[in-house]
Amino acid sequence: MAGFFLTLEGPEGAGKTTHTRLLARVLQQEGYQVVATREPGGTRLGEAVRTLLLAQDTGAISPMAETLLYLAARAEHVARVIRPALETGAVVICDRFLHSTLAYQGYGRGLPLGVLLELNRAATAGLEPDHTFVLDVDVAEGLQRVGRTRDRLEAEDISFHQRVRQGFLELAAREQRVTVVPTGGGIEATAGLLAGKVKEVLRAHAGRK
Ligand code: Z5A
Description:
The chain has 209 residues and is an alpha/beta fold. It is built from eight helices and five strands, in the order E-H-E-H-H-E-H-H-E-H-H-E-H.
């Protein structure tokens, strides 16, 4: 495919929303065509599923039902937004994708990673990120950044969030296409660090074409 598919991942309050926006701006200034989007979301169905998944009054749902809702949103998102944008040559930046499913529903909820990978493959017709950046933050600091009004997942206990963070770090240690970016230096420093790493990856990709 002509474009490049980047995902930003990480625990609560790592700064994915902030850095999706800042990175999109930097890449646009460099002349890239950029599509910035998020999960769950990015389509009408995805935004409706997001509301359902994050609402406190949805309450506890089974891990598999939760997974299938995220993947229903993803299937629509890939088919209607991400794949078409990649086909036009855009750099797609997605705030959360596959690695969130592995970290939250796998490491967090305890579903087997192999099952999640298989279901994800079906939902995306095999589309995977070209590169993933895990924005890392200490769990307590991330929850503090997010503030007091917590959605259904943010309200999980601290050990859930610790398993999720550990999951992201383990996935990154296993996969060459996943890079960890520490966020402890503040927004500006993190934005600079991330932009530098993204540009390196895009240059390497262009060199391979
Ligand atoms: N989920 C899942 O379980 N399975 C899946 O497959 C997928 C998702 C795709 C999505 O909710 C939820 O769905 C999420 C995972 C789950 N769990 N929860 N909750 P979301 O997208 O609304 O939630 P989130 O991804 O955790 O986003 P967030 O709460 O909006 O956090 P963020 O995007 O990482 O951070 P932010 O909004 O950019 O920044 C938060 C604050 O920190 C803000 O005031 C910033 O100015 C500040 N900030 C940002 N960076 C820094 C640094 N570096 N230093 C200091 N302060 C900073």
